[in-house]
From TrEMBL:
Domain of life the protein comes from: Eukaryota
Alphabetical keyword list: Hydrolase, Metal-binding
Keyword Ion transport included in the entry's annotation: no
GO biological process, one term: signal transduction
Domain PDEase: from-to ranges: 1-78
Protein name per UniProt: PDEase domain-containing protein
Organism: Amphilophus citrinellus (Midas cichlid)
Listed GO MF terms: 3',5'-cyclic-nucleotide phosphodiesterase activity; metal ion binding
Length: 78
């Protein structure tokens, strides 16, 4: 999965998830491919212990995304 993406390239964020593309990263102004590339590099570096593995990292990240999106945290975070 990771090697396939590294060879074929990463789709634009707007094609992967239109809702994710709504988030802004000012004042950092990250390029569109920075976040997906970061996730791929983190996944590549993960080992496979029973608990703190890639699935756990993804689950925690997804939960944070859901909190941010559903609780309107963008009103409180700058």
């Amino acid at each position: 999965e990771v090697s396939k993406l590294l060879v074929s390239g990463i789709e634009p964020v707007k094609e992967i998830d239109p809702c994710f593309a709504e988030f802004t990263y000012t004042p950092r102004s990250l390029p569109d491919d920075t976040t997906p590339m970061f996730c791929l590099m983190v996944k590549k570096g993960y080992r496979d212990p029973p608990y703190h593995n890639w699935m756990h990292a993804f689950s925690v990240s997804h939960f944070c995304y859901l909190l941010y999106k559903n609780l309107g945290l963008s009103n409180y975070l700058e």
